[in-house]
TrEMBL record, chain A:
The protein, known as: Anti-sigma factor
Classification via InterPro entries: DUF3298 (IPR021729), DUF4179 (IPR025436), PdaC/RsiV-like_sf (IPR037126)
Residue span, DUF3298 domain: 193-279
Positions of transmembrane segments: 41-62
Pfam families referenced in this protein's UniProt entry, alphabetically: DUF3298, DUF4179
Source species, domain of life: Bacteria
Swiss-Prot/TrEMBL keywords: Membrane, Transmembrane, Transmembrane helix
Keyword Metal-binding belongs to the record: no
Domain DUF4179 span(s) in chain numbering: 34-95
Keyword Phosphoprotein among record annotations: no
From TrEMBL, chain B:
Key words of the record: Sigma factor, Transcription, Transcription regulation
Domain RNA polymerase sigma-70 region span(s) in chain numbering: 17-83
Protein name, per record: RNA polymerase sigma-70 factor (ECF subfamily)
Pfam families cross-referenced by the UniProt entry: Sigma70_r2, Sigma70_r4_2
Organism whose genome encodes this protein: Cytobacillus eiseniae
Coiled coil: none
Cross-referenced InterPro entries: RNA_pol_sigma-70-like (IPR039425), RNA_pol_sigma-70_dom (IPR014284), RNA_pol_sigma70_r2 (IPR007627), RNA_pol_sigma70_r4_t2 (IPR013249), RNA_pol_sigma_r2 (IPR013325), RNA_pol_sigma_r3/r4-like (IPR013324), WH-like_DNA-bd_sf (IPR036388)
CDD domains tied to this protein: Sigma70_r4
The keyword Transcription regulation appears for this protein: yes
Domain RNA polymerase sigma factor 70 region 4 type: 107-158
Assigned protein family: Belongs to the sigma-70 factor family. ECF subfamily.
NCBIfam families hit by this protein: sigma70-ECF
Length: 293, 171
């Protein structure tokens, strides 16, 4: 081979492989497999929480991590119920489990809190299992960070968003929302906001439009959507429609916000993405303008 | 597709990724030139591949299919970050006309990096990843003649002369 080409090839073959590559690849393979089988994380609520409710009163460590979030102008509160922490050199986990309190509807509060606890515990167990697997395979770095944020809190609506961030060399993020009607003390779901199922289509089409517009306006933005000049349209799973129970919340302005996890509709660097649906687009199919206006 | 073949496909895919991960990393790195971004591209590529693996008709095309994902993900990344400085053929010839005889390593590397991506991809896949010309054509989704023409041009720009067999990749 030509000498110059030989030199270039040597340079290329000498590109150093970082230690993290193994983990990034294994993580990607694992994560994707999970995605295919559906996230365990979203499994329904059960009574697994009973054990830990005792823990709140007994353990001083647990009790001290109980930080209250002030919520102005309403009695419903969101607070950190318990926290799982692992802080070792190579492994870090910080899982904050929220709880809602002072909801008059005790059943609703109970079922939400049970769900939060169960999922927090599962996340912790899963993390410890991964640590063990990693140890058995020679060790490495692993991190998980989970917590919550109050997205909206006004007279009518309380929206709590919970996130899970897995960190290795790069990270993945899952977001999950619960939106409560404080006046009527009910948990809102996407289907119940609309008169029929046509919302799936209406909202999806609007999101696709927004995606294309954003991509046109800013070449740094990429969504996996058709008709936007993607390089590898045939290779990518393009966004078609939202799920009936797509992640959503209602923001302070009374607008419907649809949320997608990292990788759900866009490359990793786009992170978690949200779309505000203009109310006039869905006005005709809303059950009422009580929540969304 | 039956359960058995589904399982096989996953198994084959996972092994393929594990065995060649360093190649994918180098390929990504050759575009983005830094470790963190290259790792991100490897991760994104695996993810893309898994969500769309059902569109893969034949496992025999797995290699070119996955390489195509890595190349496209890298190019998308470059477009987003605008780190690529594309120099057209004439400018390139002008730049390189001054020092025709001895290239220092560093100049040579820069010359390669200054090639437009469609030329650079061919050089990397054909000579560094040791693919045959029709494999390169598969990866880049172009016909063999287009690839050949571009390869000649790329070599000319790099002032490298090769025998014809070298270009095609003998069996």
């Amino acid at each position: 081979m030509d000498k110059k080409l030989e030199e270039l090839k040597t340079e290329y073959k000498n590109i150093q492989i970082p230690d993290e590559l193994d983990l990034v690849v294994e993580r990607a393979l694992l994560k994707s497999k999970k995605k295919k089988n559906g996230y365990k994380w979203l499994a329904g609520a059960a009574a697994a929480a009973v054990l830990f409710i005792g823990g709140l009163n007994i353990s001083p460590a647990m009790a001290s991590s109980l930080a209250e979030m002030p919520v102005v102008g309403s009695i419903v509160k969101v607070l950190t119920f318990t926290e799982y922490k692992v802080d070792k050199e190579k492994y870090q986990a910080d899982i904050k489990v929220p709880a809602v309190s002072d909801l008059e509807n005790g059943d609703l509060a109970q079922s939400l809190n049970d769900k939060y606890l169960k999922e927090g515990k599962e996340l912790y167990d899963e993390f410890m299992l991964e640590v063990k697997e990693l140890e058995d395979n020679g060790g490495g770095h692993l991190g998980v960070d989970s917590g919550y944020e109050v997205k909206t809190d006004n007279e009518q609506i309380l929206s709590i968003g919970r996130y899970v961030v897995n960190t290795v060399a790069s990270s993945s993020t899952i977001m999950k929302y619960d939106t409560i009607d404080k006046k009527n003390q009910i948990l809102l779901s996407l289907p119940m906001l609309f008169t029929d199922e046509s919302y799936v289509n209406t909202i999806s089409e609007n999101i696709k439009e927004q995606m294309r517009e954003q991509m046109k306006a800013d070449e740094n933005i990429i969504y996996w959507v058709s008709g936007a000049g993607l390089e590898d349209e045939d290779l990518t799973e393009l966004f078609e429609t939202i799920n009936k129970e797509q992640n959503f919340y209602i923001n302070n302005e009374g607008k419907l916000v649809i949320s997608f996890d990292k990788y759900e509709v866009a490359p990793g660097y786009m992170g978690v993405v949200e779309f505000i649906i203009p109310t006039e687009v869905i006005l005709d199919i809303l059950v009422s303008d009580e929540y969304i206006h | 597709m039956g359960k058995k073949s589904r399982w096989n496909q996953d198994e084959v895919f996972t092994n393929f990724i594990r065995e060649n991960k360093e190649n994918f990393y180098r390929l990504a790195y050759s575009y983005v030139k830094n470790s963190e971004d290259a790792l991100d591209i490897v991760q994104d590529s695996i993810h893309k591949a898994i969500v769309s693996i059902d569109s893969l008709q034949d496992l025999k095309t797995l290699k070119s299919w996955f390489y195509r994902i890595v190349v496209n993900t890298s190019l998308d990344f470059l477009r987003k970050h605008k780190r690529v400085s594309i120099v057209d053929a004439e400018t390139m010839e002008f730049i390189s006309s001054g020092n025709e005889d001895q290239y220092e390593n560093i100049d040579l590397e820069r010359a390669l990096d200054h090639l437009a991506p469609e030329y650079k991809s061919i050089i990397v896949l054909r000579f560094f990843e040791d693919m045959k010309i029709d494999e390169v054509a598969d990866v880049l989704n172009e016909n063999v003649n287009t690839i050949k023409t571009r390869l000649y041009k790329a070599l000319k720009l790099l002032q490298i002369e090769l025998k014809d067999e070298m270009i095609k990749g003998a069996n």
